[in-house]
Amino acid sequence: MSKKILVWFRNDLRLHDNEMLVEAIAKSDAVLPVYILDARLFEKTKYDTQKTGSIRAKFIIESVESLRNSLKQIGGNLLIAKGNPEEIIPQLVQEYEITEVYHHREVAMEETHISSLVENALWKLRVNLKHFIGHTLYNKEDLPFPIKDIPDAFNQFKKKIERDSIIKPCFAAPDRINVAEVIDWGNIFALEDVNLEPHEKDQRSDFEFIGGEQEGIQHLHKVINAMQQAATSKNLILASKLSAWLAMGCLSPRKVYWEIKKMESVPNAKAMFNHVLLGLLWRDYFRFMFKKYGNVFFKPNGFGSQGLVDQDNQQENFNKWRTGQTGFAVVDAVMNELNQTGYISNIARQTAALYLINNLEVSWVYGAAYFEERLIDYNPASNWGNWANIAGVGNDQKSKSIFDLDKNIKNLDPKGNYAITWAS
Ligand SMILES: Cc1cc2nc3c(=O)[nH]c(=O)nc-3n(C[C@H](O)[C@H](O)[C@H](O)COP(=O)(O)OP(=O)(O)OC[C@H]3O[C@@H](n4cnc5c(N)ncnc54)[C@H](O)[C@@H]3O)c2cc1C
């Protein structure tokens, strides 16, 4: 019997640096690349928010379409289905006589729960679900210590991982794929399929996030060029805006690292290289912490005890905050920018979070749930991990003391222009 491997794409929508795809091509006679639109990703939450809003949904659709086009260019295609992976994958396994299923391991509870359901369903068919690691800069398997021994304090984590581990080279993108014979590859879905309305681009934003591997790589090259030019001036570029492509796996963190590393030798560019690298390390850190501690990060008291919550006014205060109507100009501007574009800077995220938690006395989990709906670059570990840290309930208990709302506001909006631009 010929060997057919189903490759289940989730948040890894790329050909480059994709070990699971490379191995599937090498070890099979035919590959069945599959993307499943799972309606659970678009459900309402208990915080009266939606798991995915229209700005990120559009980015996901573009990324899936781009992956399909890339696969077509190397002789393949992408099967697109709608439903629950734990039902669809076993059906496809039977229909196409699949011998093994590959996917990338996730870390947050809803995603890993779905993987377990798929694994159990496949078990009944005596088909193996093989897990790959592909979301981090450092590979968990290459760490010289088990996950349980990874330090909880970020600075120690950074020191230890940089000293004791290596960043591997990227896997080359395949230039040929032999896919299973499929009559109907399925249509790309649209926003209406998940009951969402298109969101019009806001003219105040000079940046457009378009989903997909090609767009991600293009943006990476643009950023590096801009950073190299900026190195000759004093205005260093610190925010790369790579996060949305990293979150959907259109770019691998290793690809970003090896490309950005070229700047290390450019005079004055090292600070920018270090800044992006630091961000990638924070990203890895939260993923490893999720792996270490599981769903504690989603609990209001997390690893400590959350501060005062004004239960009587919580819902009203939360509504004012999310609609940019707190009356505090910078915070309202941050929320307006988030609502209109799906992207705000790190310092803006911290500002909005600090205000919600400390000034409005709303439980931080409401804020995290709202960011989950709105952020174009949402990923569970980075979002809930950062929120928990700001709320002082993260596993690195020292981190709370480093946040300072007044200082943030001075940095974010020193002359008041930001608040004017995003006043509504
Ligand atoms: C309350 C809060 C919620 C957040 N939610 C998310 C989220 O859902 N998804 C997300 O990608 N980032 C999140 N961040 C982290 C950070 O704000 C964004 O990654 C960053 O602003 C993206 O802009 P950039 O690509 O220009 O980052 P850069 O500064 O250029 O950094 C390079 C990359 O490193 C990663 N990174 C940088 N800072 C962090 C950080 N503190 N934590 C984790 N990763 C980091 C991102 O992938 C980023 O693209 C959150 C931060 C806060 C304070």
From TrEMBL:
* Membership in a protein family: Belongs to the DNA photolyase class-1 family.
Know the name of this protein? Cryptochrome DASH
Span of domain Photolyase/cryptochrome alpha/beta: 3-137
Q: Which cofactor does it need?
A: FAD; (6R)-5,10-methylene-5,6,7,8-tetrahydrofolate
Lineage of the organism: Bacteria, Pseudomonadati, Bacteroidota, Sphingobacteriia, Sphingobacteriales
Query: Would the keyword Flavoprotein turn up in this protein's UniProt record?
Result: yes
Question: Matching InterPro entries, A to Z?
Answer: Cry_DASH (IPR014133), Crypto/Photolyase_FAD-like_sf (IPR036134), Crypto/Photolyase_N_sf (IPR036155), Cryptochr/Photolyase_FAD-bd (IPR005101), Cryptochrome/DNA_photolyase_1 (IPR002081), DNA_photolyase_N (IPR006050), Rossmann-like_a/b/a_fold (IPR014729)
Q: Which Pfam families match?
A: DNA_photolyase (PF00875), FAD_binding_7 (PF03441)
Q: How is the cofactor bound?
A: Binds 1 FAD per subunit.
The GO biological-process annotations, alphabetized, read as:
photoreactive repair
Q: Does the keyword Lyase apply?
A: yes
Task of the protein:
May have a photoreceptor function.
Instruction: Provide the species name.
Output: Pedobacter rhizosphaerae
GO MF, one example: deoxyribodipyrimidine photo-lyase activity
Q: Which UniProt keywords apply?
A: Chromophore, FAD, Flavoprotein, Lyase
